[in-house]
């Protein structure tokens, strides 16, 4: 087990470097630069800018220099936000995205697991059909539509929560609900399918045959196996939270990382894009590792050598 | 004598699956809604133009009419701020939205199935390498890939065949439309990863079976084994997954249009109409309600159909 974790931790480093390389290649493929303006720059100024940022060197020198800094976790200065390092920018905007993202995922877990388990236990009941139809609706409405509808009712209709801006608990209620909707819907469906599969398996029959009461069978045995699909979903969900937060950040005017990322790509702000991609990809790989480790605890049949 | 023998019809896999699908009320509902939607979207804009003269990008000549009217008898879905008939726009937008769903899914299908089948069949080091590449592309935010694809191949650099296709569908000399076609391909090229994993898993479990051994023994080439013998046998899960890819690429298109990177005026898709409508939600709610509900209903039906197909095509996971 320990050597499995160590091996997976070590492989994160080359994987992250490869992701950075691919991203760098992608950015360089796109035409246009960060110093593009509407007017054509005089050649002397262009040459000066290129010299200052080392763009006059051959590409392999530029790539080598960039990688040399990145392995020391130094992503350099942003090209758009003058005088600010990439690390500062990420550090400043991450807390907003992280707060909303984590709270939304927790809310989605609570709603999704409860709904999914009840739906599976009362299969083909009105609750089952009703909750799954609502879940399907959650998957079919874009969140840039869902968010403003919430605002219309709970901020402009009856003033319960502020429509936008960051500050205090009440301001994060609507963004968190908006972001969690699609994940809650997904988790409810995964939980229901997983629970139904497990409830038919032999080890549940054994547990019942031992004379355990239904509550113990459910809580001690079935749930552990039944939520494995949900655990697997957590890795990709985390990746999706980035794209999801962009919309929520725009609708509710929150200064999060998602918007900064989109802007950095559109501005050709190479160091900032690379920094955010590197940070996110490492985070995703860590989460995938945590997910793989948790399988072993949830399902005793899974072993790692 | 042979004429008198009763021929007993065997039940085929696809026949059985079709029967199971028809028993699923929700899936049939989805199928019917989708069929109606397809018909409306294909014929609707032509019929409206014939009956009233409204088109999706027809701004009225009378200046007094250039404002957003609520739904009325002449405009059942109201008009947008430029006085354009919303019904015509929603139907025209449906063409683009459904084309996103179909073309992007088709692209992801071709790439994902070939990639997954080749990796799974060749196995060993090649498989390992190919799947690690998939892992890595997973770790790059897809939006970055879409933006780069759109900017590398956009404008003057649009590949000839993309222009050719958009001219075939929408008439010549339309730069805007070829950009939308480029978007279809870009979306397809970022959504094949899960398909590749699904197909690889299927191929891994199939490749050691006798019929593949038989094919090898009779000297079928590797290419032939992969595409003639293995790929057709993965069709069940592939169809199911493709049905679920359609709503997901349509949502992604809507998201990109919301960011201003997708379909842009004068063209419309359900996503771009909804994101325009969101801006005026408190004043002109009909600008959001009609495209939003149409889109949600379509995605709803696609999801139900996908679920129904999964239950129908996978006899092992009987209907729960």
Characterize the main sheet of chain B.
none
Range of helix content of chain A:
over 70%
Q: Name the average pLDDT of chain A.
A: 79
Structural class of chain B: mainly alpha
Q: Most extensive interface: pair and counts?
A: A-B, 44 and 40 residues
Would you mind describing this structure in some detail?
The complex is a heterodimer of chains A (305) and B (320). Chain A has 305 residues and is mainly alpha-helical. Chain A contains twelve helices and no strands. In chain A, helix 1 runs antiparallel to helix 12, helix 4 crosses helix 7 and helix 11 packs across helix 12. The model of chain A has no long low-confidence stretch (mean pLDDT 79). With 320 residues, chain B is an all-alpha fold. The longest helix of chain B is centred in the N-terminal third of the chain and has 37 residues. Classes of the chains: A mainly alpha (305), B mainly alpha (320). The interface between A and B is large, with 44 and 40 residues.
Question: Keywords for this structure?
Answer:
heterodimer, A: 305 residues, mainly alpha, 12 helices, 0% strand, flat, B: 320 residues, 13 helices, 70% helix
């Amino acid at each position: 087990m320990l050597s499995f974790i160590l091996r997976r931790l070590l492989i994160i480093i080359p994987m992250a470097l490869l992701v950075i390389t691919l991203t760098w290649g992608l950015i360089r493929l796109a035409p246009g630069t960060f110093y593009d303006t509407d007017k054509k720059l005089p050649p002397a100024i262009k040459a000066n800018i290129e010299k200052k940022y080392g763009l006059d060197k051959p590409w392999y020198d530029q790539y080598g220099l960039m990688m040399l800094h990145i392995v020391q976790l130094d992503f350099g200065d942003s090209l758009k936000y003058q005088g600010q390092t990439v690390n500062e920018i990420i550090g400043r905007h991450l807390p907003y995205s992280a707060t909303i993202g984590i709270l939304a995922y927790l809310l989605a877990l609570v709603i999704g697991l409860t709904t999914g388990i009840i739906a599976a236990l009362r299969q083909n009941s009105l609750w089952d059909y009703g909750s799954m139809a609502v879940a399907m609706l959650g998957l079919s409405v874009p969140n840039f539509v869902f968010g403003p509808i919430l605002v219309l009712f709970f901020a402009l209709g009856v003033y319960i929560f502020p429509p936008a801006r960051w500050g205090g608990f009440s301001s994060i209620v609507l963004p968190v609900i908006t972001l969690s909707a699609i994940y809650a819907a997904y988790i409810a469906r995964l939980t229901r399918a997983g629970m139904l599969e497990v409830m038919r398996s032999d080890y549940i029959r054994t547990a019942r045959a031992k004379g355990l009461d239904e509550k113990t069978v459910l809580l001690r045995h079935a749930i552990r196996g039944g939520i494995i699909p949900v655990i697997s979903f957590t890795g990709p969900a985390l990746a999706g939270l980035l794209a999801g937060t962009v919309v929520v950040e725009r609708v509710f005017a929150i200064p999060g990382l998602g918007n900064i990322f989109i802007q950095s790509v559109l501005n050709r702000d190479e160091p900032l894009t690379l920094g955010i991609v590197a940070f996110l990809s490492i985070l995703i790989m860590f989460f995938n590792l945590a997910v793989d480790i948790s399988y072993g605890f949830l399902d005793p049949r899974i072993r790692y050598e | 004598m042979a004429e008198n023998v009763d021929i007993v019809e065997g039940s085929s896999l696809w026949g059985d699956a079709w029967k199971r699908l028809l028993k699923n009320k929700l899936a049939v509902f989805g199928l019917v809604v989708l069929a109606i939607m397809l018909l409306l979207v294909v014929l609707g804009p032509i019929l409206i133009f014939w009956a009233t003269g409204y088109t999706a990008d027809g701004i009225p000549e009378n200046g007094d009419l250039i404002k957003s009217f609520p739904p009325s008898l002449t405009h059942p879905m109201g008009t947008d701020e430029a006085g354009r008939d919303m019904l015509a726009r929603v139907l025209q937008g449906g063409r683009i939205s459904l084309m996103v769903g179909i073309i992007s899914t088709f692209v992801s299908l071709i790439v994902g199935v070939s990639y997954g089948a080749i990796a799974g069949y060749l196995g060993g080091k090649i498989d390992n390498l190919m799947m690690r590449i998939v892992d890595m592309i997973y770790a790059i935010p897809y939006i970055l890939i879409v933006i780069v694809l759109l900017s590398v191949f956009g404008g003057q650099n649009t590949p000839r065949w993309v222009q050719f296709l958009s001219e075939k569908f929408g008439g010549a000399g339309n730069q805007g439309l070829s950009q939308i076609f480029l978007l279809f391909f870009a979306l397809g090229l970022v959504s094949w990863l899960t398909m590749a994993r699904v197909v690889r898993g299927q191929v891994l479990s199939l490749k050691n079976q006798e019929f593949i051994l038989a094919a090898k023994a009779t000297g079928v080439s590797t290419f032939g084994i992969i595409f003639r013998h293995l790929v057709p046998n993965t069709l069940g899960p592939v169809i199911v997954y493709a049905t679920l890819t359609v709503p997901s690429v349509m949502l992604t298109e809507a998201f990109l249009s919301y960011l201003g990177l997708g379909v842009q005026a004068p063209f419309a898709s359900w996503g771009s109409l909804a994101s325009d409508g969101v801006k005026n939600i408190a004043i002109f709610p009909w600008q959001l309600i009609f495209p939003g509900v149409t889109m949600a209903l379509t995605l709803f039906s696609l999801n139900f159909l996908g679920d129904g197909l999964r239950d129908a095509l996978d006899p092992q996971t009987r209907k729960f």
